[in-house]
Design brief:
The chain has 188 residues and is mainly α. The chain has two domains: 8-91; 120-187, Orthogonal Bundle (Arc Repressor Mutant, subunit A), CATH 1.10.10. It has eight helices and no strands. It has helices at 8-18, 22-42, 48-69, 74-91, 107-126, 130-141, 148-159, 163-187. The chain is globular. The two termini are 30 Å apart. The relative contact order is 0.11.
């Protein structure tokens, strides 16, 4: 599994592999990303964006090895990686099926559970740096869904990174907060 800190030169090499110039490579990249999202949505993946980003991250991490000797359409390589990522995702442990009878929480119990979850989130949020908090807040919460790609491109320009680097950073930060919350639940 590649690191979330993929070197920027790998992304430039990826764009060069995808098209004769940077602009054509970027267009091909966006087309492949949309196709990956469709691929995962058709397979009822809970979070197709995370899996599509994982595929792109893996390909970008290995592009220096793959691009030189690969024969054929680069999108075929992306989808070979996508099939592998999907298989790994399906092997992950799932929550058990819900029993037929589920004890209902009283209003007090539900309020306590909600408060405890918010406390855990707040603890994990405080562990992020101020810059990480701003990026995650803008990447996940403040982006208008109608023009999501434009908003994320603007955010990437503002913080001085490529769009792919922003996606990887957003994914890494979401995973960091989620892991922190899960660890706090286990300590319970």
């Amino acid at each position: 599994m590649p690191t979330d800190q993929t070197p920027p030169e790998n992304f430039e090499l990826l764009l060069a592999w995808l098209g004769p110039d940077r602009e054509k490579g970027a267009e091909k990249y966006e087309q492949i990303r949309r196709n990956l999202l469709d691929y995962f949505r058709r397979r009822d993946v809970f979070d197709p964006i995370d899996l599509a980003d994982e595929v792109i991250s893996r390909v970008t991490g290995k592009v220096h090895e793959v691009a030189t000797g690969f024969v054929g359409e680069p999108s075929a390589y992306f989808f070979a990686v996508a099939r592998r990522v999907l298989a790994e995702w399906r092997r992950r442990p799932r929550e058990a099926d819900l029993p037929e009878y589920i004890a209902a929480y009283s209003d007090d119990e539900a309020a306590q559970r909600k408060e405890l979850t918010l406390q855990r989130l707040e603890q994990c949020w405080k562990r992020l740096s101020g810059e990480e908090q701003q990026i995650l807040l803008r990447y996940c919460v403040e982006m208008p869904p109608v023009k999501l790609s434009e908003s994320r491109q603007q955010l990437a320009r503002e913080i001085g990174v490529s769009l792919n680097a922003l996606r990887v950073t957003g994914h890494r930060l979401r995973r960091k907060v989620k892991s922190c919350i899960e660890r706090l639940i286990e300590v319970k």
